[in-house]
Amino acid sequence: xxxxxxxxxxxxxxxxxxxxANLEPFVFTNANNxxxxxxxxxxxxxxxxxxxxxxxxxxxxxxFPDHFLxxxxxxxxxxxxxxxDLLDRSKLTENITVLDVGVGANCIYPLLGNAEYDWSxxxxxxxxxxxxxxxxIIDKNNLQDKIKLKKQQxxxxxxxxxLSETDKVSVTxxxxxxxxxxxxxxxxxxxxxxxxxxxxxxxxxxxSGQAHELWYKGGEKAFLHNYLYESSLLKTQSFWxxxxxxxxxxxxxxxxxxxxxxxxxxxxxxxxIGNKKSRVVAWTFLTEEQKENWNK
Length: 296
Description:
The chain has ten helices and nine strands. It has helices at 13-19, 42-57, 73-89, 108-117, 128-140, 182-195, 211-214, 219-232, 250-261, 288-292, and strands spanning 28-29, 35-36, 97-101, 120-125, 147-151, 169-174, 238-245, 265-273, 276-284.
C-alpha cells in the first residue's frame, strides 16, 4: 500500500462499530481470538466500508442498492494517494478538478478525494440508476458544490460526449471493467469463492456489481485502448489522464499506442493491496510550455 494509506494496519472493529453501529451485527471473534467479519458476505463488506468512510473520512451517508459494486476502501484510497503524488510532482496544488470515468452508484472516488484534499469532481456514468444513487449520496452529504455528475449517453464512448474541447480538468481517473463478458465474471467469482472456502452454488459476489461495472466487450484491453484514443482527441482538456490497469500484460500495448498517439509522457505506478497487484498508468499530451502555462 501507499505509505500514507490509513488502512495499512488491521481494522479496529471496536472503533469502527462505535462510528457505525450497523457494522456490529457482522463482527465476530475468530479462532485466533481476533475480531473480524465474513468477507464473503456482501452485506458485511458493505457495512465495513460504510464504517471506514464514517470513521476516517467523516462521510455520514453511504447507501446504495445492494446489486451495485461495493468497492474496497483501502484500494480506492491508494489510487487517490497516487493521484495526489502525480499532481504534486506537476505542481498542481490548487483548484483541482478530477473527472471520474465510471463514478458508479457508490460515488467512492469523489467522496475520498473531496474528504482528503477538498478536490472538486465531475463523475461520469452511463447508467441512470447509478447516477441517481450517486446523486443521493452527494445530496445527503451536502457535497453538491464539490461533486457534479454527467451522463455518458453512448456506451460506445468514454470521454467523447462528456469532456468537450472547452472543458479543462486537472486529471482523469478510471477503474475499467475487467471482464469480457458475464461468463468471465462468473468464472472469476467461482475461483474467488473456492479460495474463501465458500460454496459456489450460489453466485454471490462479495463486491456485487452490475454488467456495466464488471464487463466490457473485449475486456479491459479494449476499454483502455478506446480510452487512450479518445484522450488523444482531447489533448489539452486534461493535464493528466490516468487509469487503473489490472492486467500487466496490457502495459506493453498501452505504451505502444500512446507513443503513436503522441503522448509526451507516460508513467506506470505500481499498486500492491494485500496479495493483489495492480498499477496506475498516467499519460499526458501537453508540451512543457503548456504545462508551465496550465494555471495561467
